[in-house]
## 1
Amino acid sequence: MYIDIAVGLVIGFAVSFFTGEASLSLIAFGVFATLVPDLDFLVWLARNKWQIGRFSHEHRDIFHLPLPVGIGGGALIAFLDPILGLVWCLGTLAHFVHDTLDGGWGIQWFFPVYRGYFTLVPYSPKRYIRDREEQRELAIIHGTPHWTDWNHGASWNVKFLTQLGVLGIVLIVFVILFLVSLWA
Ligand SMILES: [Zn+2]
């Protein structure tokens, strides 16, 4: 998550720099774009009684979709503002690249054309995973490396909720900054 924030700052700053539209709001929007895909974790948690488990990676099936969310979302936003569309596209794609390299069991890079998952995480014996069934088999056999203490209940939930709280605060601050700058 902290890497995503840093990457978002860089993307916002770089686009500001190259388009001559140096603005705090653009940088804030960069951070927002690199964090926003993980909001699907909230949706997933709500559906799963707020319990983290072996299959927590499945939250990625909701928003972690580069073609519709990254490219499609960017194109939609570009109709309103091309530069914001570009930042959205770069930010969300950077998040998906990060998640391909780190944590979980892959990203559906070509959804909805092809529904397989692609991953470069070192602990995965496979680089591409056919479908959710195969993903579950891998998670059962090889565990959940990034959720090592998922079965330790309370302590893990505190750790997780703290991260979620930080993410929430960062998102709220940046949304406020962004909205304020729109009217400024
Ligand atoms: Zn993610």
## 2
Amino acid sequence: MAMADNFIPVGAPVHRRVMSRLETALAARRNVLEIIPALAYRQPIVSGEMLMRWHMLADPAGYRRVMSDNLANYPKSEIMRRMLRPAIGDSLFNADGAEWRWQRRAVTPVFTHRNVVALAPAMTATAERASARLIDAIMTGGRQAEMVGEMLTATFDVICDVALSGREHFDANAFGAAITRYFQTAGRASLLDFLGVPQWFPRPGEFLAGASVRTMHDMVANAIEARRREQPGTGAADDLLDHMLAAEDPETGHRMSADELVFNMQFFIVAGHETTALALAWALYLLANSPADQKKAHEEARTRLGSRAATAADLDAMPFITQVLEESMRLYPPVGLLARTVVAEDELCGRTVKPGDILFLPIWALHRHEMWWERPELFEPARFDPAIRRDKYQYLPFGAGPRVCVGANFAMMQAGIILSTLLARFRFTPAGPGPRPIMSMTVRPDPGVLLQVEKTE
Ligand code: HEM
């Protein structure tokens, strides 16, 4: 058990007094997690006023209302949509209303369990390459590896294979560099939004992000074009791009335009690898500091896999590794905070919310809330033993309801295959000071997860 390891995973800085508008704006630019007040970890809902009234919800019944029962009343907040729009337009993640509905109907079948299982061999091959890279790291001295970088390389490898069938039309390094530039610029909450500068006033990040967004779009558009030339109208689908080219709304037969396709593929490529890599890096940080749990996970993986890399068929036979991933995403949900706008008056946890109010959904605080979790600050994978029942809206790394993450199966499969393969072969121990969680768009370990890596036999 983790408790025996006597390790308390790193948390976020919590401000106990009310911050001014400027302090909040500066905190949000530094680390979005800092805007979550101490009360949000103890109460179902916290409200306040900056320019507009805002609420922070950390109650499972409240999430059920916002994400399912009264979904139409809580569209995505314009501030968040605006941050993402240059990169992903009004594609599935960013769209609302009818524009969202038809895209969701078209894209859902792309991610059926069957389709995702068909993509698993690319994940197994990637796990093999990730382990070869770690062996190189051990051999070339140092015996240390920075696991965020390693995991980003691994999951990007998967998405290049399954989204764009390899790299012949696609320079993965140039694309990776453009993503990093984008996250460093537009990915930061804008000070101007918090200070109430009108929406038509251009934000500096948008100028800086422009060039990286254009690079990414041109590359994705070229890869799509190359695919269309290679397989004109064959309808044969064997990877994500083929499925997306064939996707249509089952009710109307509507297909995606070239731009919609680029925006959606762009989102899959960025979101599909960044979030999963962070989940993996945090899991390795936790296990490196919890030797007893790591030993248990290693034994489970070794018994099932021996010296081969994991496949889709192995995952059900390694339940503890799934629990480790789930508990890692409880403590460090890659998407730590979402925001919605209130359309019509409603009641959440006994509080009236009014049209135009901002509603924050701090998944981070929901997952560490003292009303819903025992010893919330500790790493205890056994909480996710399937025999233990809990409110399904208490644990939401992938969101919930009609807008639940469409790639959740894909993410869990890729993470399970990579993590179990590495745990079967390597032992990880901390090397250097631990990371701090910093959220801009996603919750990243800063400055990284530096570990000592040894081959296990
Ligand atoms: C560990 C990995 C991942 C995490 C933690 C994650 C998390 C989330 C969350 C929390 C949402 C809901 C957002 C909201 O309600 O505002 C979401 C939506 C979405 N995710 Fe993921 N995601 C992951 C991986 C992926 C992957 C691999 C893909 C695709 C390849 C993907 C595609 C999407 C899409 C398209 C949506 C929007 C769905 C809609 O609005 O209908 N995600 N994700």
